[in-house]
Amino acid sequence: MELLDNLALGFSTALLVQNVLYCFVGVLLGTAVGVLPGIGPTATVAMLLPITFGFEPVTALIMLAGIYYGAQYGGSTTAILINLPGESSAAVTALDGHQMARQGRAGAALAAAAIGSFVAGTAATVVLAVAAPPLARIALAFGPAEYFSLVLLGLIVSIALARGTALKALAMIALGVLLGTVGQDIYTGTPRFVFDRRELYGGIDFVSVAVGMFGVAEILRNLEDERTRTAIVSRVRNLWPTREDRRRIVGPILRGTGLGAALGVLPGGGHVLASFTSYAVEKRISKRRQEFGNGAIEGVAGPESANNAAAQTSFIPLLTLGLPAHPVMALMVGAFIVHGITPGPNVITDEPELFWGLIASMWIGNVLLVLLNLPLIGFWVRMLRIPYQVLFPMIILFAAIGTYSLGFNAYDVYAIVFFGILGYVLIKCGCEPAPLLLGFVLGPLLEENLRRALIISRGDASVFLTRPISAVLLALAAAALAVAVLPAIRRRREIVFAEDE
Amino acid sequence: MERRRSFPDVLAGGIFVLIGGAFVAGSLGYELGTPLRMGPGAFPLLVGAAVAALGLAIAVKGLVAGEVVSFGPIPWRAIALIVLAVLFFGLTVRGLGFVPASAVTALLTTLAGSRVRLLTAVAVAAGLTAAGTLVFVVGLQLRIPLWGPWLGF
């Protein structure tokens, strides 16, 4: 069995002492930032990226991945206990999870989330291991035209990441693509929009954009209204769910895992979509529909499983196509490149240890998360008492130092200020930052493949429609755009979302 | 849905139009090329125009039937202090060295909180500077001098 051999190789890499250690550090940090409101995985990974430059590539990626899925997990803990989702995808969990906590069933809710996440994580790791190699083989047949269409599809799907109107999300994506053009042109070497500053020739550093938009802007938002958070947390006991609860969560977990694994593959924010969809599905098929919103355990187990499964399978586009599906993935692309590896279909054949090691580490990480979270729940709750007055200066200082240490370039630090202010104003106007960040990362790929495809086709733009894969991808992109923009469909979508809230 | 003018929508649209327009104007200064060999200016021109057009659409929609978003208060003091703190770090880290630059940055940022007393702020800043030095210089071997040339060492 080739798969078993591959997994054996993966586990032999992932179980090396330093890899287990950094996997642990990653999920620990991830849980911490997931629990703490005001700092998310994107800003954390951005700040820690420079630290990992000295590691072995596989160790660095294992740790960064751990932060990512650890944060999904930590976010649900705060969502349940204090109705404050630490991560956007945990917003659904808060609906029923917090109601359960208020009824004194916090233990059961946390356990349902943990069991769901673990089952989903395990299943999705297998999906990843089975699906990635054939997809990577298909991806090898991709030419520039297909890549262009795929990137375009990914960008349009990321509209789903945003809560505001589709129009604003589209504008944010395009703005991100535009900002990505700063720096030297790839084909001619002409410096673009650099104001004669040599420091800008390399372009705007992605870390500055991420730290500014997700770190500084978020802090400014929080400083608007400095009420102290009083966490009224009742003691959590009776972690083990009752027999009735166990019976009720089996279906939602399995359905959530399936949905999440499928939606996570979409480039561009599948995990938020997955948890919302799972909640809607559970509500629709449940016989106790009136319980939803008042503490239905299905409303915790389903979305949590979906969200965790999607977090795992969203590595598929990254590992097979080199396309990041989430801002954190975009940072991981940076980590790959720093270590001299181009993320894409060749990783699986050129760096099998890294590829399978990363996959195996996800399963280990999921085990570590369950071990970490259920016994240590009191510790995480206590962490919420760290005063924000200490937390936010720490984030700003470490962000400045971390960004500076990327290339000892003061312009990277100034860029944080610029993007912090821009992000703050735009967020205040109802524009979400995530699409901009994805546009910024994928923009250069879009331009490069557009120009390359046109050179190959001798300037004939119809190449995007005559090549079958590219045409299908473009059709999907057009359909996604239509769903997001057309008012009739959007109204129906609003109703679905309104039901959820 | 309630139809009303929405200031945030118009502002957001204006920002998009402004930035998109600036990039369009800038890209006209570069070679545009032909579809076969697109020059460095072609792609930014296209995307800049798209950003400006979307911005215009958002602004117009904001005037006619805007999204109801409450703008909320603006923490001017915090914004000014944080901007100053980060700029200070970028400007002086090379000259003053890691420790003084971090200390001033940490102090300025801590003061951005509204109900903070000076003594607490100094203590927090000192603690953060020590933590930053330990993590980045001692732990991660970052090559930034602790005390810079401006101080005469």
From TrEMBL, chain A:
Record bears the keyword Cell division:
no
Which residues span the membrane?
45-69, 108-132, 138-162, 169-188, 200-220, 318-342, 354-374, 386-407, 413-443, 464-489
Q: What sequence ranges are listed for the domain DUF112?
A: 21-438
Q: Which UniProt keywords apply?
A: Membrane, Transmembrane, Transmembrane helix
Name the chain's protein: TctA family transporter
TrEMBL record, chain B:
Ranges where the DUF1468 domain occurs: 11-145
Q: Does the keyword Transmembrane helix apply?
A: yes
Q: Does the keyword ATP-binding apply?
A: no
Q: Which UniProt keywords apply?
A: Membrane, Transmembrane, Transmembrane helix
Query: InterPro entries under this entry?
Result: DUF1468 (IPR009936)
Which segment of the chain is annotated as a signal peptide? none
Transmembrane intervals? 7-30, 42-64, 76-98, 118-140
Name this polypeptide is given: DUF1468 domain-containing protein
Taxonomic lineage per UniProt?
A: Bacteria, Bacillati, Actinomycetota, Actinomycetes, Streptosporangiales
